[in-house]
Amino acid sequence: MKANVAIEKFEITELNVDVVVVGAGPAGLMAARTLTGAGLEVAVVEARDRVGGRTWSKTVDGAFLEVGGQWISPNHKVLKELLPELGLKEFPLYGEGDGVYLDEDGTRHVYSGENFPISEQSQQEMNRLIGVLDELSSEIDPDAPWTHPQAHELDTISFQSWLETKSDDALARDLLTRLVPVAWLTKPAHDFSALQAMQFAASAGVFSAFLADNIVESRVVGGMQSVSEKLAKQLPDPVLLGAPAQALSWEDDSVVVEADGTDGSKNYRIRARRAIVAVPPNLYDRISYSPPLPAIKQQLMQHLSMGLVIKAHVVYDRPFWRDAGLSGAGTGLGELVKDVLDNSNYQDPKGTLVGFIGDEAVEPLLRLPAEERREKILNSIANYLGPEALEPEVYYESDWASEEWTRGAYGTSFDIGGLSRFGVDLRTPIGPIHWASSDLAGPSFQHVDGALRVGKSVAEEIIAELDATD
Question: Where is the Amine oxidase domain (predicted)?
């Protein structure tokens, strides 16, 4: 039911629904789809002028770029099953040819096979450590890592310090931290705990799953954002865009969400029986709650933070690296760009690379003028693939850290000690308020697949609740 009420000089649209969803990313939209499929009335409000959350396909100077989350892994079963339902297709990443490894002094090595061209001793030590990490991560419940018998011990030591107790081989340690938890959590290995690293590994099964050649297996034809766009189109009512939720008042069995656009043109007051806050946890406090959220939730929010990464997109007239028999994939511990990948689009003759700069290397770059930062990043990519990399047709940096409704990338993780203290409260409803995002996922933690899993699960919990009260 909808009604328009004039208050002062602004018009407020009042809605009465069963569930209000705050956030139109994959989690919120999957929740809305599941709820409407059960016959419930749903309103979805979104602060941005688009759906998709941290997935975003954008055309820059004529080049199609996926500036947010984009890859599909073998274990992303929910996403894989959903794509054909939405009329979407996958296409494989280009993986033919040799890789490039830059060692700590910058020496360039072209190699084939699974192993980096490092000393036999360090490779053997890496293999041994992978076995240790696989064994431990296989014991971790990704939905409840705090239940592990050593949870407190693992959560009160940084992953870097914990690895130092397991091995004296600095190269083996650095490669393992760089390739898995640092690359994905986008924080230095001294900033998150061993338990947080193990939860991340367990979210894919075991630690070594993230070392497999096909861990980034495929992409969506048309971009990952199209998943959210298709989900939104299936809803009976359009998503209310440009309407950030400002206030949420709640009682035991009802909520009122006020979503006010900054220009006063999109103001909503939505009454519902349940609410789903489907935004990253670092944004929970952008909403004013009445009554205030309980102390535990307030504390939890202060122990979670976003990572930081620059994702640089560079587009060329052709994928020139393939002419040299290279796959476009490179890794370098001593490089500014730690990882580079062929990210060329489906049936596109142009060649696209993405380069990633993460953790402590990002802040000095962000302090530089844009042109100087661009020059440094291109020079680093050229160290992998040669001087042709210096002359792209299009250059673009994904700037999620300054994006108001994200403020970092790829997702949130706990500080040291936070996961074992507050993890159990992440998804616990507070009265009629439920929570959903990829940051709360067990399997596929911080991935679109995880967002879809959580969105569906939360919706099913609400359906069961409302069935029980009707």
Answer: 27-463
